[in-house]
Amino acid sequence: MTKTISFILNGDEMTCDIQDHWTLLHLLREELGMIGTKEGCGNGECGACTVIVDQLAINSCLYLAADVQEKQVQTIEGLAVHTGSLHPIQQSFVDNGGIQCGFCTPGMIMSAKALLDKDPHADPEAVKHALAGNICRCTGYVQILDSVAAAGRQMAVKKTTHEAGYSDPGSVIREPGDQTAGEVTR
Amino acid sequence: MKPFTYLTPATVEEAVSLFGQHRETARYMAGGTDVIVKVKEGWMGPDYLINLKQIPGLDDLHKNENTGELTIGALVTHAMLEQSLLIRSEYPIIYDAVSNIGSLQVRNMGTIGGNLINAVPSADGAIPLIALDGAVLLKGPEGERSVAVKDLFVQPYETVLTPGEILTKITIPAQASRTGSAYIKFGRRAAMELPLIGIGVLLVVDEDLSTCARARICLGVAGPTPLRAVKAEQMLEGQPVTPDLLTEAGKVAAEESQVRDSVRGQAWHRKEMIRVQVRRMGLKCLDIIHQKARQA
Amino acid sequence: MSEYTVVGQRVPKLDAAQKAMGRAEYIQDVRLPGMLYGKILYSRHAHAKITAMDVSKARALPGVHAVLTGEDIPPKLRMGFYKDNPPLKADKVCCFRDEIAAVAAVSEEVAKKAVRLIEVTYDPLPAVFDPEAAMEKDAPLVHEAHKSNVLKLPWKLHYGDVEAAEKQSAYVVEERFTTTWVTHCCLSTSGAVAVFDASDNLTVYSNTQIPSLAQKDFLETLGAMGLKGKRVRVIKPVIGGGFGSKLDTYAYEHIAILLAHKCRKPVKILFDRKEEFEATSTRQPTVIYIRQGCDKKGHLTFRDIRMILDNGGRTSWGATTPSVMMMPITSLYRVPNVRYDAKCVYTNNTYSQAMRGYGNPQATFAIESSMDMLAQKAGIDPVMFRRINRNEPGDETPQGFKITSCGLGQCIDAVEKELTAGSPLAEGEGIGYASLIHVGGGARIYKSDGCGAILKMDDFGKVDIFTGGTDMGQGLDNMIAQIVAEELGLLAEDINVVHTDTDVCPWDVGAHASRSTFVAGNAALGAAKKARQNLLAYAATLFETAPEDLVMKNRMVWVKNDPEKTMPVDKLLRKAHFSPGGTMLMADYFYDPPNENMGKDFRCNLSVTYSFGVHGVRVHVDKETGKVTVKNYVAAHDVGRAINPMLLEGQVYGGVIMGLGYALSEEVMIKDGQIKNPNFRDYKLFTAKDAVPITAPVIETDDPDGPFGAKGIGEPGCVPTAPAVANAICNAVGVRIKDLPITPEKVLAAIQEQSKGS
């Protein structure tokens, strides 16, 4: 079945016609021609297709396009276009050898972004935990973890000095469970 | 992927009625991390997918301060549980289990209700809920009913749910004071793992901080469904919990299990892991209990 | 302080920003107007006759443009060096991986549907899955016409006198080791797009590591199709990982060509992940029998190795891995008497190809495990045992390898120092070592081991260099850019490296044997030297001085003792161009290292230089579960010179983690010929959470033949990893695991066996 959905893609309002069974990955790559998001397995087991939907990193290969209705979607293409220069995470991957063949890179960077947007001070264990769903065959992860740590340091500085010009619009973070009655607040 | 029509009801009743219209050509879907894979692989090919995610209230996560009962809505994601301080501090066994399901991406999408309904022997989510004596609320064409989580599973990929029934929430009764709980997933790597074996232990002790008032030993991948090692539990109950007794309980639990050889692991090794990890998780429970007692 | 300004710098990968922005285009992203999508049907049996095939339903499906079966394959079209593999099989199948039909359709969905509509009737044949069983007299024949399951290959050598040496040995150890299938797991799956022009000239987009050899293979395909004399152009999109997987041409490439010709439209075949696991080649599995001896003082006396290789149902490069295994067997450490015999045996399993290290990891697993066993028997500390037997510059090994630069001794020192610096070993902890030798200056496998480079400088001081070499993520572009920039006094960012198109790039034998930095680097250096010479000759006439008196640095040229006389390079280039009778600066170079082909007895100097390394690892073994945890890993390599330390470290880290997967977690599980875990869920690659602390000391020995002294280092990172881990486990808990991967099950079983014995 065909339906029309509206959502925000990398800060821009989008309205498009979709088929019910399309995944978000299909919509991005095949219909919108946004090749930055990669398909490595199609089953949520490699993370190459990671994008951010409402602040959460998800596998776009398992996420139905229909479910982005009224939501905010960030892809790798949305990171550098607004400022004309690389996002600190992208720059850090470039500078620290975090990229070899590059196929896992967009997904890896999106996972890192979802984490660091929330917590730029994430410690190495938290970084590993957040990136564990992004498989890389080239780097052995060492320089990727270095890249994320260095980017985190930079983003933490920017956050404290309110220079977060690279952050995306409307990023009010909904802490899952926070609004629940009995939840201990942070 | 085979095309389907995606229906998005606003209430449980509407969902049930939609299912009634389409019957066997319809499937419910929550997070989609299992259903979409199955549709892609051709293991199922529904004409209608009924999306439960827009039904308000199904992602409720709270503890009733008066009764001590914990409610986990079926649509609460693994990530929501993992990131909840309440779960982390008061229900460590749930935290242990959900924080290593799949990847963060999958945990951001996948729901606890879906994890149960999928009914794989390796379901990490089921073990802690069984250990905590949890129950699920099912709503369907015939009304609603409550089923203990331990009784939910029939065989791999099959639960007691009748066609059209929806699992709406999980409730966990108030925990006794002096409770400790822990879960370990044993696998070949540190993440993205289905367990070779999953072992959850919950201990409640008397005021002496030693005598076991209640024991729960729950095993994943140890049989066709998640199961409880009842004989091993009985060995512990009423006895002072010592490392030696835990070792014995581990042996008994291993014998009670129905482990098998598979691509992921060998039966004898799975038994060994039950033997060893029941003791280790039991000791971890005691540590938690003692630590809390010191804090109190 | 280094004398160099660009060489030795941690220059970020030239294409990194493009990749970080998601703008790099891989085979997945290639889409041509009017393109059709191809899908392949594979066998449902390990060994069977095809008695009937009905494609009528598939042909009738709307949107289907062509259906091909084995009957449509030109008789002369056979893949692989052993020529036992037509792209589609007609009469019988020899493994589950056998391709039997293919479809081209307007979409992937339609193509998939059409493939499912093809009806095949099989008559199953008795199958054989164990290579040793396949050698038995009454074993089922995988290829009846071949008469025997043992391939006719010459892998046999004997230098010195092993039997005499054994008699004189003070200590001898003997063991059987086995290694299983593992696979590359490139994050980008395989794929190709084939398109013919109006005159039947062919263009193939493929993520190949061997553009020039692929071109030759595809020309042969055209020849078999009756299109002799036509042209083939190979275009490489950005390659999402290689590791040896793209060192041969595959059925899907030839099928895409056949479909494109039949449909007169571009045809794309792109693998999904399951297909990638099931229909691309693995690392060669082995059964290894090794005997090794030493004298009282610990000097190796002999090494005697017999191997049986499961060749699978067809033959790709896996069957030639013994030629590389010979290297560590004859030349890792000083060992005067060596014997080696390897048999490749057809079975109904999948078949193997090149994978990072090309046989070296398998052979080194047996050799270095056995080294520790021998050291223990002789009562010598394993590090000392390796020191006693280490290779030295000036050595000539029994196979005739001439060792020039060699930092094996320094590597041993560096690893020992780093690894013993930490806290004392705790209960359950142990340390293990293993060394490696690998070709460091290419390897003459083919008649030519060369690579071409064409360089041009434009009016703005920028360089375009067209290389035959291939960057598949390992960073060859940077090696070339930094080498050329250094030679021409420019910055790395001034150099544009083009390696994507056989229409403009010169010939190269391929990205294998850790040869690219050395061979493609030397080719680029040769071209840059010529360009420099020409530019300086021109500048010398301008400045009325001798070329030797000129300095070329920081994009400037000036007279050494008269710095007033100076000119920016770009201005110099414009002056040369726009003067009457002007000239553009262009240079080409073909570098073929003075490596030797193997002789009849395999004696040769295979590579003009060799790389060395030592790995050391500290592990913890949980005695109750068998679980092995890597606490610390040190990997020291003699690399000649680090052209770019950051990318070098990346090769080592990536190699080590791939090697640790080989050691501990990875295996393609095959039961009765069928792969049971064709996905990332059950094929256990390390995740970020499994990453371990790695230190990578770099030993620079300034190789006399390498570009700026560099040697190859692409593969070594994963070569001695498994034996280092096995040795550490033995050091920790006293059990020797002889079968990869070293799973908790195997470790615990060995520990329990041991405690039963004591």
Key words describing this protein structure:
heterotrimer; A: 186 residues; alpha+beta; 5-stranded mixed beta sheet; 5 strands; B: 296 residues; 5-stranded antiparallel beta sheet; 11 helices; 14 strands; globular
- Tell me how many strands of chain C there are: 29
Tally of contiguous helical segments of chain A: 6
Q: What is the 3D shape of chain A?
A: globular
Report mean pLDDT of chain A, rounded to a whole number: 88
Oligomer: heterotrimer
Q: Please give the count of helices of chain C.
A: 18
Low-confidence stretches of chain A: 163-186
Low-confidence stretches of chain C: none
Biggest interface goes to:
A-C, 53 and 55 residues
> What share of the residues of chain A does DSSP label as strand, in percent?
5-15%
Distance between the termini of chain C: 58 Å
Structural class of chain A: alpha+beta
Question: What is the percent of helical residues of chain A?
Answer: 25-40%
Strand order of the largest sheet of chain A: 2-1-5-3-4
Your description of this structure?
The complex is a heterotrimer of chains A (186), B (296) and C (758). Chain A is an alpha+beta fold and 186 residues long. Chain A contains 6 helices and 5 strands. The longest helix of chain A has 19 residues, at 142-160. Chain B is α+β, with helices and mostly antiparallel strands. A 5-stranded antiparallel β-sheet of chain B has the order 4-5-10-6-7. Chain B has a 4-stranded antiparallel β-sheet with strand order 11-12-13-14. Chain B has a 3-stranded parallel β-sheet with strand order 1-3-2, with helices on one face. The longest helix of chain B has 29 residues, at 267-295. Chain B is globular and about 55 Å long. The model of chain B has no long low-confidence stretch (mean pLDDT 96). Chain C is of the alpha+beta class and 758 residues long. Helices cover 28% and strands 24% of the residues of chain C. Chain C has a 7-stranded mixed β-sheet with strand order 3-5-1-12-9-10-11, with helices on both faces. Chain C has a 5-stranded mixed β-sheet with strand order 7-15-14-13-8. The mean pLDDT of chain C is 97. Chains A and C meet through α2, α3, α4, α5 and α6 of A and α1 and α16 of C.
Write a compact overview of the structure shown:
The complex is a heterotrimer of chains A (186), B (296) and C (758). Chain A is of the alpha+beta class.
Task: Explain the layout of strands and helices.
The complex is a heterotrimer of chains A (186), B (296) and C (758).
Chain A (H helix, E strand, L loop, with lengths): L1 E8 L2 E8 L4 H8 L18 E4 L2 E4 L12 E3 L2 H4 L7 H8 L9 H14 L5 H8 L10 H19 L26
Parallel strand pairs in A: 1-5
Antiparallel strand pairs in A: 1-2, 3-4, 3-5
Helix pairs in contact in A: 3-6, 4-6
Chain B lengths: L4 E3 L4 H11 L3 E4 L5 H7 L6 E4 L9 E3 L6 E4 L4 H6 L1 H6 L1 H7 L5 H6 L2 H7 L7 H6 L3 E6 L2 E6 L4 E3 L2 E2 L6 E7 L6 E8 L10 E9 L6 E9 L6 E2 L1 H7 L6 H14 L10 H29 L1
Parallel strand pairs in B: 1-3, 2-3
Antiparallel strand pairs in B: 4-5, 5-10, 6-7, 6-10, 8-9, 11-12, 12-13, 13-14
Chain C lengths: L15 H5 L15 E7 L5 E7 L1 H5 L3 E6 L22 E2 L5 E7 L2 H10 L1 E6 L6 H4 L21 E4 L2 H6 L3 E9 L11 E6 L5 E5 L4 H14 L7 E4 L15 H13 L3 E4 L2 H7 L6 E9 L5 E13 L8 H11 L5 E10 L13 H19 L3 H8 L18 H12 L9 E11 L11 E7 L5 E5 L8 H13 L6 E4 L17 H28 L6 E4 L2 E4 L2 E7 H10 L6 E7 L18 E12 L6 E11 L6 H21 L4 E2 L2 E2 L18 E2 L2 E2 L21 H13 L10 H14 L1
Parallel strand pairs in C: 1-12, 10-11, 14-15, 18-19, 25-28, 25-29
Antiparallel strand pairs in C: 1-5, 2-4, 2-6, 3-5, 7-15, 8-13, 9-10, 9-12, 13-14, 16-24, 17-18, 17-23, 20-21, 21-22, 24-25, 26-27
Helix pairs in contact in C: 9-10, 10-17, 13-14, 16-17
